[in-house]
Amino acid sequence: MGTGVPKRADYISWDEYFMGVARLSSLRSKDPNSQVGACIVGPDNKIRSMGYNGFPLGCSDDEFPWAREGDTMDTKYAYVCHSELNAILNYRGGSLEGCKIYVTLFPCNECAKAIIQSGIKTVVYDENKYDGTPSVEVSKKLMNAAGVRYYQYQKTGREIKFTV
């Protein structure tokens, strides 16, 4: 029984909400070039975990390299843990079977393997700036074979305003 006052009609969708959480998570990354965030959501639309790209626990982001070019030992690539893997490893509640992951960048092949192994069934990604690269093509091939659905987040163009 209503009070005669209609509910708000301009509330955000679940996809907007969870991609917003992934974007907010990406702002925790200290990587000077790529800030990527992830948010894992259960079938009940409850957030299970979040992550962003950075160095493993106990590895100082002041002592390890952020460089993108040079000898492998002197670049970030050998050290950084991606947002998807961080979100998966941060979860301490049991199984992620049937969950959905929202990520600001299409998963690389290594993250695709972790997504598949964790039981996540859907990937919603924002950007795919590495589309066509071997890593992304392998990722798609793996997810297709494993029955993991993926689709690009559809931006609404809506400006999010915070009111009190």
Question: Tags for this entry?
Answer:
single chain, 164 residues, alpha/beta, 5-stranded mixed sheet, 4 helices, 16% strand, globular
Largest sheet: 5 strands, mixed
Question: Overall pLDDT, averaged?
Answer: 94
Shape: globular
Strand and helix order: HEEHEHEHE
Strand content: 15-25%
Structural class: alpha/beta
Percentage of residues assigned to helices: 25-40%
Which stretches are low in confidence, meaning pLDDT under 50 for 5 or more residues running?
none
- Give me the number of helical elements: 4
Q: If you compute it from the alpha carbons, what radius of gyration comes out, rounded to the nearest whole angstrom?
A: 17 Å
Give the SSE map:
Elements: H1 14-26, E1 37-41, E2 47-52, H2 83-90, E3 100-105, H3 109-118, E4 122-127, H4 134-146, E5 149-152
Parallel strand pairs: 3-4, 4-5
Antiparallel strand pairs: 1-2, 1-3
